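Go through this pair.

…
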Amino acid sequence: MKISFLLHNAYGIGGTIKTTFNLAQALAERHDVEIISINRHREEPNFTISPKVRIRALVDLRTEKDHPLHQKPARVFPAAEYRHDQYSELTDERIAATLADLDADVVIGTRPGLNVHLALQGPRHAVLVGQEHLTLDSHPPALRNELRRVYSRLDALTTVTHADAEAYRRKMRLPDVRVTALPNSVPEPVLPPADSTGKIVIAAGRLVRSKRHELLIRAFARVAAERPDWQLRVYGKGDQKDRLREVIDELGLNDHAFLMGPVTPIEAEWVKGSIAAVTSSFEPFGMTIVEAMRCGLPVVSTDCPYGPGEIIKDGMDGRLVPVGDEAALAAALLDLIRDDELRLRMGRAALQNSRRYDPVPVVRQAEELFADLLAAKRGRRARGLRIPFRRRLVSSGHAVKDAAFAVAVTTLRTVRKGQGPR
């Protein structure tokens, strides 16, 4: 199969980029795979990727950020999508032109705004798959309404948890779209797993309010009071860095809690520790949870929606504590710190149980989904069943009057007539 991914910016840092790279590399062992990066701001990607995966960018921000069309807001990419300010009429045209010429068998969007482009402009011969790396409930109402209008044009929609897949089935009413959970994959680390002797608790992720690192630091103050020989290391960058530094100073944890900055790859840091901590108020999946477990660390995590409860088996390979409960978080950390045997046993269980997120089973599931949908689409064509360009957009049957649809159709027809962007 020829498989193309649409990605916001393959040259950035983030969970969606990392998991897209992981899936693309695994698929490239048996298929022709490319990543189409809408934006580009540097010469090389931050994450390494196999040379078997081609990457091409549509808008190079180093040279085109002042392009006249890039100064005009996007009209196809939905305004309610939080990346909207990074899209423009230039990205509208480049995406439309690319999709019009694409000869892929499967095209995969990796965020809501790109899924809208894919639904409205994707090649009709290809299987169109929208990926959701966030959750339905996290989208603002205006975006949910937009997605409800256009997602019925997709062939499949994948979510990273079963809970979110069920939410889409129940709330979006997409009877002709295959909605299924396809978890993120994490390759086996090249380093030996942690041996549970390092007296370090590790957290990793963006330093933003939703990750609640301040809660972790305050909980660790209780840990350090009893076990001053242990450290907390927090990896990542974000707008909460200065605030977290203030909390460390305020609590007198300068010799115990450290902001380490971003590190890529991070496997070498995970294996130095013995416990991983996640304190988010919300986790669509929990890539850091799986990464830590694959390195042999038990994870103490808040039991937030949606991912942690599907990944961690509480009491077996980690611990789940109530969201925002500083005392429960500190107690769970201390339980593992005090009991070397328990920590070692949970670390071994984490290593074993996390193998279900290896690329092999995840890619097998993806391949089966793509092959099934492709066979069905080709079968319809072989029987002479025309797949119309403008399929039903709303399950209730109401006419669609959305301006973005008209813009998308006009843009695509212009491109197909050879009048597209130069």
Remarks:
- The chain has 15 helices and 13 strands.
- The first helix runs from residue 15 to 27.
- The longest strand covers residues 32-40.
- The CA atoms of residues 228 and 256 lie 7 Å apart.
